[in-house]
Amino acid sequence: MDAAMKHTEKTLFQAINQIGQTLDQKLSHQENLTQGLLTVINQQSQTMVNNLTTMQNHFNHMFSNHSWSINELMWNEIRMLASKNDVPRSKIDSGEHPQAVTFRSCKENPSQLSGKYIIQSTEADEPFLGYCEQTAFAGGWLVFQHRYDGSVGFYRNWTEYRDGFGSIDGEFWLGLEQLHRLTSARVYELLVELKDFSGNYMYARYDEFAIGSEAQQYQLTKLGSYSGTAGDSLIYHKDAKFSTRDRDNDDNQGGNCASRCSGAWWYKNCADSNLNGAAGVYDEPFLGYCEPSSFGGGTRVIQYRYD
């Protein structure tokens, strides 16, 4: 009897053990299947992410090219409208692209971002590319002279000062003819920003500014009330005609102030201010009777329409 029970117990134990081993094998197999499925799912997910990234990059590239093409087409239309005399002033060099379409002035530009914009003061005027300073002194300023590193020479002739020179992205002079068209159409303020070799900042602001036509030798016809920290040295030049190295319109009987001062300006006899002259060391800010300018750190002359 005992032997029979022991045999039965042994048989049951073996059966239970076999069932346990079978369950372990099936569980292990199920875990392997699950792990395999998770691996496949992860691989598929990564593939989908990669595909989506590729598609996004592709669409971004297409959008960028499309936007670029629109800008190119827009500027081609502008260049077709511009006269030959205006092309040097409104030319967009490689990498230069306007941020907006046409505005009558920087003041009417709603953007708070400083940068290149296409300006058309009146319907009768040709559009041109200008730099709008939208942060300094509440913004709305059009930059027409900018110097800061000496990369562009300012000892130039009458034609170059009339038509403009340099690059909007660097040092430049917008052009006397453009300046005359703007200031004869509306009332403008004038702001001169200065920085010396030590980085000290000064400014001179005038509540009215205008120049005459080329027939008037771009005479400084209007200069309003002064405010600022640089000193009112520009008042000396009011009513003066513009002079360059090849066109002497100054009051000096001893020679051409533009040649002596190495830069074009509204000279009389000769200058209390000389922002287009050669840079050098000088101990009186914003002054200089043909002395080198002390503002090697940079000058920026900008105007603001306020009518």
Automatic annotation (TrEMBL):
Signal peptide (UniProt feature, chain positions): none
Keyword flag Protein transport: no
Residue ranges annotated for the Fibrinogen C-terminal domain, each copy included: 97-277
CDD domains: FReD
Superkingdom per UniProt: Eukaryota
Record-linked InterPro entries: Fibrinogen-like_C, Fibrinogen_a/b/g_C_1, Fibrinogen_a/b/g_C_dom, Fibrinogen_C-term_domain, Fibrinogen_CS
SMART domains reported in the protein's UniProt record: FBG
Cellular component GO terms held in the UniProt record: extracellular space
Keyword vocabulary terms for this entry: Disulfide bond
Name of the protein in its database record: Fibrinogen C-terminal domain-containing protein
Lineage per the UniProt record: Eukaryota, Metazoa, Ecdysozoa, Arthropoda, Hexapoda
